From TrEMBL:
GO molecular function: identical protein binding; pyridoxal phosphate binding; transaminase activity
Regions that span the bilayer: none
Family matches, as Gene3D superfamilies: Aspartate Aminotransferase, domain 1, Type I PLP-dependent aspartate aminotransferase-like (Major domain)
Organism whose genome encodes this protein: Gemmatimonas groenlandica
Any one Gene Ontology BP term: amino acid metabolic process
Family: Belongs to the class-I pyridoxal-phosphate-dependent aminotransferase family.
Cofactor: pyridoxal 5'-phosphate
Name by which UniProt lists this protein: Aminotransferase class I/II-fold pyridoxal phosphate-dependent enzyme
Domain Aminotransferase class I/classII large residue range list: 34-397
Keywords of this entry: Aminotransferase, Pyridoxal phosphate, Transferase
């Protein structure tokens, strides 16, 4: 079954389009067709089975009723908030202002409720994770974008600065969502020079009005080189401690612990102690989801108390980082064998490939070859999280034919 996409050209349609494409891929696979389904957004093994981390599930099975059933505090268990913050910045002794959220999506939504007004806009990179548009639209907020650097190119500082200054002048405030490192959907990370340049721009602009920077950290455990992640987190910590810009982070266990369905995360402001901010966030939590699930909080707390569990989790993350690296390496080689540029990747579940002249039309051509990807205005989102290395040759051949 082919899914017609040409009516979706008004921009990336987000979850609706992804679900439609994934369903079409599954229907074709059910007929016995040799489908390559690169629409998925969760980590699959080479048999197409969802990866569930054994180290995490072993702790889940140990939970007592009192670690599962009682209401969690509206703001979240303070010990959980500290433990989740310290997964990213071990040196911190407090999460600062922090509230539990249903995954990273909840953290993103809270910033819209508290830092911009209806009809205003936020700034993010293009391309972006499709549900950003859904979350923004639900809050009656616009998404304005500046370009994510192309492979081998530097950040377009002028474009970022111009857009940021325009929004600050128009609104009297600026909120930036930055998904780095392991950017979804490009699978790349900002270079240290680009990161520091962008932070310098925000620092300068903040002299003219309040600027808030949200850091979206969904895929950090699946970076090619964990040292690059550590470097980025240290840069952000140094910048946040300056307090020229209000820095917060969307933290989640969805990918890190493969607990997609438990919806466990937090919005943390590690370098703020503003009581008014904490009160506003708690009020927003109460007025939306009230409180979050206790069980995943309990799992993280058990993890922090067990060196053996931490070692097992680290080993599993290392294994799946290796699998992702193997898949992208195979895809890169297969694309180059077709005379194409290849696929740059630093981490995460996706790569983005160009699809001239029309990503939606290219996507339909790929469907005819039983290859399913997600079209965006900027190209094709390809889920290497669900693609076997052995399938990359057929994928590359179909892709090359579709853009010829």
């Amino acid at each position: 079954m082919r899914t017609h996409l040409l009516d979706s050209r008004q921009g990336f349609a987000g979850d609706d389009l992804i679900f439609t494409l994934n369903a079409a891929a599954q229907q074709r696979a059910a007929t016995g067709a040799p489908v390559i389904n690169a629409t998925v957004g969760a980590l699959l093994d080479d048999h197409g089975k969802l990866v569930v981390l054994d180290s995490v599930m072993a702790l889940w099975r140990e939970l007592t009723p009192m670690e599962i059933a009682p209401y969690a505090p509206i703001a979240g268990d303070p010990a959980f908030l500290l433990a989740l913050t310290q997964r990213h910045w071990p040196q911190l002794t407090s999460p600062g202002v922090a509230v539990a959220t249903p995954g990273g999506s909840g953290a993103l939504a809270l910033t819209l409720k508290n830092f911009v007004e209806r009809g205003q806009a936020i700034l993010t990179a293009a391309p972006f994770w499709g549900p950003y548009a859904t979350i923004a639209a639900e809050a009656s907020v616009r998404l304005e974008t500046a370009p994510y650097p192309a492979p081998g190119e530097a950040l377009d500082v002028g474009a970022w600065e111009a857009k940021a200054r325009d929004l600050l002048e128009e609104q009297g405030r600026l909120l930036v969502w930055l998904n780095d490192p392991c950017h979804n959907p490009t699978g790349r990370s900002l270079s240290r020079d680009d990161r520091r340049t962008l932070l310098a721009v925000l620092r300068d602009i903040a002299s003219q009005g309040p600027v808030t920077l949200l850091l979206d950290f969904a895929y950090l455990d699946y970076a090619r080189d964990p040292n690059d992640v550590r470097e980025a987190l240290d840069d952000y910590a140094e910048f946040g401690a300056e307090q020229s810009v209000l820095v917060c982070a969307s933290l989640s266990l969805s990918k890190a612990f493969t607990l997609y369905g438990s919806r466990a995360g937090a919005l943390v402001f590690p370098w703020s102690s503003d009581a008014a901010l904490k009160g506003a966030l708690v009020s927003s939590c109460r007025g939306t989801w009230s409180n979050c699930a206790r069980a995943p909080m309990s799992v993280l707390l058990r993890m922090t108390k067990s060196e053996a569990a931490q070692a097992a989790l680290a080993a599993e993350h290392a294994h799946w980082r290796g699998v992702l690296t193997e898949r992208v390496t195979a895809l890169d080689a297969a694309l180059k064998a077709e005379g194409l540029p290849g696929s740059a990747w630093d981490g995460g579940f996706f790569v983005t490939l160009p699809a001239p002249p029309d990503p939606f039309a290219v996507c339909e051509k790929l469907q005819a070859a039983d290859v399913f990807v997600v079209p965006m205005p900027e190209g094709l989102r390809v889920g290497v999280c669900g693609m076997k290395a052995a399938d990359t040759g057929r994928f590359a051949a179909a892709y090359a034919a579709s853009i010829a």
